[in-house]
Description:
- By secondary structure, the protein is an alpha+beta fold.
- It has one domain (30-133): Translation Initiation Factor IF3 (2-Layer Sandwich), CATH 3.30.110.
- Helix content is 30%, strand content 43%.
- It is built from 3 helices and 5 strands, in the order αβαββαββ.
- A 5-stranded antiparallel sheet has the order 1-4-5-2-3.
- The longest helix has 26 residues, at 3-28.
- It is elongated, with a radius of gyration of 27 Å.
- The termini are far apart.
Amino acid sequence: MSGQSRLETVSGTGAMHRIIAVAGLLALTSACTSVGQVGIMTKPGADPGALLTQATAYEEIGPAQGEACRYFLLGVAPWGDSTATRAFEKALEASGGEALINVTVSTSLYGFIPIYNVFSFTCTTVEGVAIRYKQASAPSGPPSPSPS
């Protein structure tokens, strides 16, 4: 066998080992994601129906994002909170807003060694535009008397 043929065989074997290693890593991890759209998310005490029917004025603060995760060890020991409500609260805390509009909610599930369910976690991400409601202006005091 010539030196060049032997070199080609060795380099071909190295590439095959890399492919097998990557395939093995992919087999040990898995993930899936689902995404949905929501028009508006408000704090629990707010009445979204009244906010819409009364055409409540608001100001846009800017983009906001919050993420909440829940972890599972051996499929039986969970900890954390991955609800959309918790992710929404984190988005409002970070932005200082009172509600989010044009909201996207995505939920992802990640598993490591999924056959045996050794460790997995799920995360919910809420993204949108943070807003703050404008208060209706009220008179500041009694009207001043008119001169006679």
